[in-house]
Write a structure and sequence with these properties.
heterodimer; A: alpha/beta; six-stranded mixed β-sheet; about 30% strand; B: 13 helices; binds adenosine-5'-triphosphate; binds magnesium ion
Chain lengths: ~325, ~270
Amino acid sequence: MRVIDVRGLRKEFTVRVRKTMLRREKRVVAAVDGVDLRVERGELLGYLGPNGAGKSTTLKMLTGVLHPTAGHVSVCGFTPVPQRIKLARRIGVVFGQRSQLWWDLPLRDSFDLLKAIYRVPGEQHAAQLKRCRDLLDLDSFMDTPVRQLSLGQRMRGELTASLLHSPEILFLDEPTIGLDVVSKQAVRGFLAELGARGDTTIVLTTHDLADIERLCSRIVVIDHGKVVHDGSIQDLHLRYGSRRRVIADFDVAFTYPVDLPGVVLESSTGTRLVFAVDEVGPLAAVLAANGSLRDLSIAEPEIEDVISRLYQTPAGQVG
Amino acid sequence: MGETLRIYLQLIGAQGRAQASYRVSFWLDLAGNAIVVGADLLTVLVIYTQVPKLGGFGVAQTLVFFGLALAAFSLADLFVGNIERMKTYVRMGTLDGVLVRPLGVLPQLLAMDVGFRRLGRVAYALVIFAVSLSYADIPWTPSRVVLAVVAPLSGAVFFCAYFVATATVAFWWVESGELANALTYGGRDFTSYPITVYSGWFRKLFAFGLGFGFVAYYPGLALLGIPDPLGFPSWLGWGSVLVALIAVMVAATIWRTGVRHYRSTGS
Ligand SMILES: Nc1ncnc2c1ncn2[C@@H]1O[C@H](COP(=O)(O)OP(=O)(O)OP(=O)(O)O)[C@@H](O)[C@H]1O
Ligand SMILES: [Mg+2]
């Protein structure tokens, strides 16, 4: 079932640019410029792009916060802005940069208020809360006022808050921003578990590519408001010809030429050779046949490399 | 409907609990409000030590206008006063969070910061209004009794609408705070005195164009049983209800347009 259907989505902002001391000029910038996006139920979608690409703006239009300048948007079968309230019951939203909890009250109170706001039946609320408490270790700070929570604790609270009404789609705008390694892993593990159950669709933006590698089967990359990639991480590697590396260390300098199809010698420092390969097997066999091979390691292609190459490609031009 | 009301009451209750953690500031505000209200009242009394009449009215009568305006203003301030923080809500992105919840935007914002701190001012205002009525020699009739209750309420509704309308400017213009403030307090000060002290286009604009004449002046005249020096009929006192309703409709339209033009922030 298709839960998000977006065609030709566009958002323009009018900004005033100061020209001289007194004169200001109006300029229209397209933050989102013709985005098409279709998401099926249960997908875990990573929405990537450099700073200012239009990720948050897109999410705001999908959640009913902003009115699109043009284009068609349907989320859970609703048109977000006019049907904002109906839509709100079916989605959960976490803005990593700002809190949606009650700042001066204990975390527990926020959950109670949300129960009322979303009219969640008692048992469902209890069950959902129990699950989040277990998975996210909330128990030690349920009674702490939100303003006294650490960023990591607060983010776990935000996640719980967004899920109490069992939304069909969860939108997360940079949920791991500013978190330490342990908290990031807690958040990722939780989302992975949620995604694996298959009934919640997750759309997530992030600048931490480890989130993407860990969680997302599909990534959509936008730049200057336009979609520049839509597919799996493997597709991206394929498209940019990024290949795995084989790093071989020898006891004595290895000087024999290696001539195999799909193998390129990238660097050689006497006893250490680095190859880029399509397939590891044949090369490994050749190298191992040389008696002085000490160590052999394989490095997966770096997603950072691919993404940064993608960001540097002028928008609209396919790599 | 009842369910929705219960949700808002719960939200307001939560706000009360949150503010209870700042108890000292509650008492400070109470004392501060007393000083501010006292100073305003004193201003009126000092003026009357210099002049016997102001715009054709004696001190007891002017105090009815003053009390009525203050009651209307502080009641409105209690319920929607925090809307003046609209620009902060826009800038901080609070509004984004409000928009993704299944409740109306305006009631949520209002419930987020009900001014329990401003309760003191309401109490002072009601006392001043009641005392002014008892000093003013009012020829009481049943309809005047009703008007004495209806007038502060419709004035409050009028100010609520006015606050919301001026605060809405923040949707387009994030740095609009000072303008909204000037309009809000300007409007209150205008209504505190009989409109006969103003003149020309200024009076026409504020009293009739923007409707401030119907907050305190005309209902006040009807209560006092005094004919309008400007020559308008006395039933205009009841016009405050109609003017309040019109103000609500205008404010609602401005508000809806504002929400539609909301552009959030870039981060
Ligand atoms: N309210 C606004 N008013 C004016 N311009 C805006 C507004 N919101 C966003 N923009 C502009 O639109 C563009 C896209 O912004 P957006 O916040 O969607 O980027 P993003 O992809 O989320 O970036 P980041 O990774 O930095 O969060 C930027 O150029 C930004 O300056
Ligand atoms: Mg963003």
